[in-house]
Amino acid sequence: MLGWLWPGAHTGPTMTTPPQAPVRVLIVDDQASFRRAAEQVVEATDGFAVAGVVATGEAAVVAARALRPDLVLMDVHLPGIDGPEATRRILAGPEGPGRPVVLLLSTDEEGDGGAWVAGSGAAGYLAKRAFEPQRLGAVWAVVVGA
Fold this sequence. Notes:
35% of the residues lie in helices and 19% in strands. The protein is α/β, with parallel strands linked by helices. Helix 2 packs parallel to helix 3 and helix 3 (83-90) packs parallel to helix 4. The longest helix is centred in the N-terminal third of the chain and has 13 residues, at 32-44. It is globular, with a radius of gyration of 17 Å.
């Protein structure tokens, strides 16, 4: 399999692949304690980095446009516009490079998330109690087809 070539790199059979950039994550939650915990989970997950942290759906829409994260971790229950509505607004632009993947998070059980996902365009749903580095990495791999 051919990898990317650095400028001026040898073009023979010993080509190398450049290091992968981390998955840039925007965390959206109205609870400060969960925002801190989510930051720790993201930083503890190999290949992930926190791009930004906000507390409202309105701020999420603005931050997603400004920061251009790869992944948005969006709480369902937010003051003002809720997570599903903020997700719809974030994903309203054209598909393609630069459009983030959105995962909805809530304290509700995972079986309850289907309606929120279907109505918002989010890629999936994860119960907050199941949010840990191994799960984040596994969900990302499934979503992006890695």
